[in-house]
Amino acid sequence: MTTAADTPGLTTTRAPFIEAAQAAGRLYIDQPYELYSDANHDVWHRLYGRMGERWARYANEKFLEGIRTLQLDPTKVPRLEDVNRFMAPLTGFRAKAVSGYVPAYRFFDCLRQREFPTTITIRDGEVLDYLPEPDIFHDIAGHVPMHTDKAFADTLVAFGECARAAAERVSGIADEHERLRVLTSVVKAMARFFWFTVEFGLMKGATPGELKVYGSGLLSSYGEIQHAIESPEVQRWPFQLEWVVNQGFEIDHYQPLLFVVDSFDHLFAEVIRLVEWVREGRLDHVAPGEPGISEADLVSFLEAAGHA
């Protein structure tokens, strides 16, 4: 009889099941829970166990409520079906297992449909603190607790509407070169907005001068969640849409610049403004720089616009 200790596991970059799914062109998959190894569960236990004190100190209250609602087992990688059983009745959101990177339009359109593309592999136990790509700890322990809150869930849906607006924006541009230029600019602006909010956002706390974390990149990082709030090396500025969409970022180090929203209502209002700016053409010429926009991301929007 094969045991969890004998299996290859579902370790990031070393998961035969994922390699096979990708080779077969299957993006949306089931979570083969029986493939998680003892080492995979141990990594989840170590990651989850060390975050409790940091969450209690730095995370926003809605995240903490989400953690309590989801009733995640601190000792084992979660089953997505269990996560969805608690989350879906609250906001309609569901975690949806994927085999790898989801092109930008398809990702945002999943959000519009209240589906969150979720990585099912987990990082190696030797690299707990940095991972250039998401894993199930980042997605489930970092992102998903926020998805139990209606205001935040509605904000994610609005991001999906923004992607649809971007596809509509370029659908009427006849010149191929100009269409690609405008699309690259708009998608870059959306990526920057998402990064500085959903991934690395800060929010005003309940008392004057207090800051709390709501961005998943911070909520899933033992080191950076504290650094984001306490380090004198971090610039923390009130959220300004015109600045955010023109501000580049790099993913391989702690963030030196973060933006602070007043509340989840404020965040939702800014996403609605982002949608309006897409439709008005105000994101057609954002500043160059990071992040780079991949061909797969552009193609996903062009397919939605009918120009693939």
Task: Count structural domains.
Answer: 1
SSE string: HHHHEHEHHHEEHHEHEHH
If helices are DSSP runs of H or I spanning 4 or more residues, what is the number of helices? 13
CATH architecture annotation? Orthogonal Bundle
First CA to last CA: what distance?
Answer: 49 Å
Q: How many whole angstroms does the radius of gyration measure?
A: 19 Å
Shape: globular
CATH superfamily: Aromatic amino acid hydroxylase
Give the proportion of residues in helices.
40-55%
Low-confidence stretches: 1-6
Output the strand order for the largest sheet: 4-3-6-5
**Beta strand %:** 5-15%
Assembly form of the protein: single chain
Profile the largest sheet: 4 strands, mixed
- At the fold tier of CATH, the topology name is Phenylalanine Hydroxylase
Number of strands: 6
What keyword list fits this structure?
Phenylalanine Hydroxylase; alpha/beta; 13 helices; two-stranded parallel ribbon; about 50% helix
Summarize the structure.
With 308 residues, this protein is an alpha/beta fold.
Please outline the helices and strands.
Elements: H1 16-23, H2 38-58, H3 61-70, H4 80-91, E1 94-98, H5 104-112, E2 115-119, H6 136-143, H7 150-171, H8 176-199, E3 202-204, E4 211-213, H9 216-219, H10 222-230, E5 235-238, H11 241-244, E6 257-261, H12 264-280, H13 295-305
Parallel strand pairs: 1-2, 3-6, 5-6
Antiparallel strand pairs: 3-4
Helix pairs in contact: 2-10, 5-7, 7-8, 7-12, 7-13
